[in-house]
Amino acid sequence: MKMGLIGDAYTLLVRELLIFKKNLGVNIIRSLIFPLIFIILLGSFGSTPKNVPVAVVNYDNGPNALNFINTLESGGSVVVVSSTTQTAALNLLSLGKVAGVIVIPTGFSSGAASTIYVYLDNSQPQSAEVVSSQVALVASEVGASTSVSGLSQTDPPGLIKVISNYVYGASSNYLSFVVGGLLVMVASFGAVFSSGFTLLSDREMGNLKAFLTTPINQFAVLLSKIGYGTFQSFLSAFIGLIIGLLYGATVDAGVLGFFELIWIIFLVGLGFSALAIALATRMKQLQTYALVSQTLVMPLAFLGGAFVPVTLLPSFLIPLTVVNPLTYAVNAVRDVMIKGFLPVSTLISTSVILVAFAGACMALAFALFRNTSMQLS
Question: Is 158 left (phi over 0), alpha (psi -120 to 50) or beta?
Fold first, then answer.
């Protein structure tokens, strides 16, 4: 008796989940080990980035201001990006295109104004630390003091004072940065390995051919595999989030942010599950699929900023980050976890990109699966 596409897909998905339940211990351990190892390893250390972009707003343009900027850039730790106004510079900071903003006021060189304002994006802790340290070093070289608070009446007159403002990602830490990228990476890996491997396993054991010779809608088989991959992807990411929170990461956006995380992870899992089916339909051996999937997903995770901020990648790789759907997913997750908010415009644009990616992969998977089913049936 034919049940229709949705009914058939649901029945086959239940079959996949029963198989999952039968090997529950192994599946849970597999979902646990991967994020645990990465959180422990990547959360315990951090390399010092170089050439960190910093926007400098120079309202003074006098000799002392230029000397301050040249000294700031001389160490090679930061790269100065000139900006005409403070508003434009802070916009770059909010978009994550620079790690800090330095504002030199009018009259700085003449001594009429002696306060330099520094705004840091702590949602990228490593980069923020580099900028903060370099500013403090330059300030000490020119006889200045630094502070994370406002000016005080007890401040000595005429002394340059550097004020740091930690509005952007104020409560962030490196672990939250790592976990944010790791959740997206785990979701994509979980989807690729689950849905692709289960399709190839059914093909090797003859189950796939048996399904296609029954009245079951052939695309129901495809939907069940994608659904199972999305489930496994979500489970892996959820376990990774729990481990991260226990290890010290935070979700600063609260309950609403938690639901935003679920939505983004779901879309990542859906898209990469469909991509995995598209790859698996063209391969006959598990070993080949494992090699191809790893070769594809790992660079995408790296280029998406899962390990280091995209702004620190070599310039020739930047165009690849723009067309990488994981870039937008990682940025959105980190906004939720570190900055404490995800703008509605960013949520909508990220969702559109991930839905478009999932739709394109699903269309490709359907087209390739049609050819495969015709060969097997």
Answer: left
